[in-house]
Amino acid sequence: MPSLTAKKGEPLRTLRKAPTGIPGLDEITGGGLPRGRPSLVCGSAGCGKTLLAMEFLVRGATEFGEPGVFMAFEETGEELTQNVRSLGFDLDKLVRQKKLILDYVRVERNEIEETGEYDLEGLFIRLNNAIDSIGAKRVVLDTIEALFSGLQNEGILRAELRRLFRWLKDKGVTAIITGERGDGTLTRRGLEEYVSDCVILLDHRVTDQVSTRRMRIVKYRGTTHGTNEYPFLIDEDGFSVLPVTSLGLQHDVSNQRISSGIAALDSMLGGKGFYRGSTILISGTAGTGKTSISAHFANAACARNERCLYFAFEESPGQLVRNMQSIGLDLGKWIRKDLLQIHSSRATFYGLEMHLAMIHKMVQEARPDSVVLDPIGALVQAGSQRDANSMVVRLIDFLKVNGVTAILTNLTISGNSLEHTDLDISSIVDTWLLLRDIELGGERNRALYVLKSRGMSHSNQLREFLLTENGIHLLDVYSGPEGVLTGSMRASLEAREKSAALAAEQESERKQRDRNRRREALEARIHALRKEFEIEDEESALVAAQETARAKQIDQDRRAMTVRRQGNSGHKPSPKI
Amino acid sequence: MKKSGKAPTAKKPESLSEIARNSRGEIDHDNWDLRLYVAGQSPRSLLAFANLKRICEEHLAGRYNIEIIDLVKHPQLAAGDQIIAIPTLVRKLPQPIRKVVGDLRDTERALVGLQLRPGKS
User: Fold this and answer.
1) How many domains is chain B built from?
2) Which of A183, A275, A421, B14 is the most exposed place for a label (fewest CB within 10 A)?
């Protein structure tokens, strides 16, 4: 199916359209209702027909400069004014400004007797008068079928209605005719027979005690339109329709990385954190710190001056802020700065589609950079598993298309496999952080690991983390010979190791000292020996000198004796001596 | 534009007995104020007016007042009496307001509608 939103840019076809101004409706109708023609809006009681019609007029008058006439057959002008005041529409003001006329047509059967032939010229004249008096371009007839209960002659009525719709076309006004849904037919009186250009069916369905409003364009002549059932909601801003299924997988991706708010976790994710616009699932059993990690992320986002929307399905904003204060996160500060919005609603409070619609609407209004859904599994309670799956997938698509980073938390029921989520969304998330508790040595400790993280290198380690009053601290991995240890066991082992290390150090110091002492002793001995040797050396030199001196003396003595014996100084001494 | 019936509007009943006689046992009232809404001089409107006059002469002689309102000329008057169909006869007085829609060709039904005859409808 081609993307519906793409059609908005194309030039208008031959069929001109009158924009309703209702968010979403103009997208699925490709620009609005057929201009200058009547459209039929039908549905069962309380499905929002009157409101849709009224918003069409009010927005026409205020946004498109097209005044309107509301001809009501069931409610008086005052009632209508009161009813839509809660939606922010000030009909009195529009009436004073001559942008709107409310005409209440009362048809009371017990006041009326019929005799002979008649026509509805009175109605035509009233309508014509109202249209001409303010130059109306839009007309609503709500619910014209009331005529059937007031007047008996159905033959005349049918002929006159046919003439009325023809007349509306000739008049060139864009009209909405509302009709109550009948048994097996779109309207009780078969109005669809006369109004055939555009038929919109509203539906209000209750499944498992949860109601969901849906809209479908049954037919729209001369134009393409979204054919699915689209959920819509009515809230304090009026009507909005969600063309949610028109989303595809053609979103832009960002290479920008953003911090998770926990430095150690960032380092586990390739050192830089998550990709902007990615979807992060945090799953774990009860009490493993999913909300705390989400809150860290929200806190970090706000600290970067980004807007964050936090949908809490289990805690009230006040409770969340208080609880996060205990781990040193001041979320209240960001709320006051209008960066963080916390929306709390029980998952069972609305239907799934309503949740989806609400989230859509808030995201479109607040334009946040990131969204936290805590916990996503709660939505299963609001509908069936299958519906919840498809809703979450659509939601993730929607957030991705808008480049919004999404944190989803999911509670794993203990006993189930950890790598399992209530919703089958694990395959479509980009990063999956798994939190688990490790029970060891009579303690339960928290550990975190990155199960997957697309497009980045990530740590394979199981990291213990602590929730302290200064936030989350990831501890270094202890993986010694005894495996991965956590909590006090880890602490005691660390202490043991520390004392062992200390002892070893002391031992080595002692050995060092010992060696030093031995060296000193050795050196002292070497010194003594050297001294001894020197003395010997000196002595032997002395002896040698004495010997020399003695030999010399002997030589001299001998010569003297020779001289004395021979008296001849030239006589050689005898070689025998 | 107003077309007045020929009956005098300010006529007071002479006595209770006269009214009782005039009304011939039907529901008894002082003064009938009737309005006929039409759209232009269509044959149906003219027929309705003729029928109305006949009925009034027969049943309300001397104590009725007919006001004809042409919505083509005074469209803003349609809302006041909640007029949808044309022609519509509105009995303003006596209270409560009654409406008879159509060209009044069926006299019996018209009389029932005006509560000049007990209705079975």
Assistant:
1) 1
2) A183
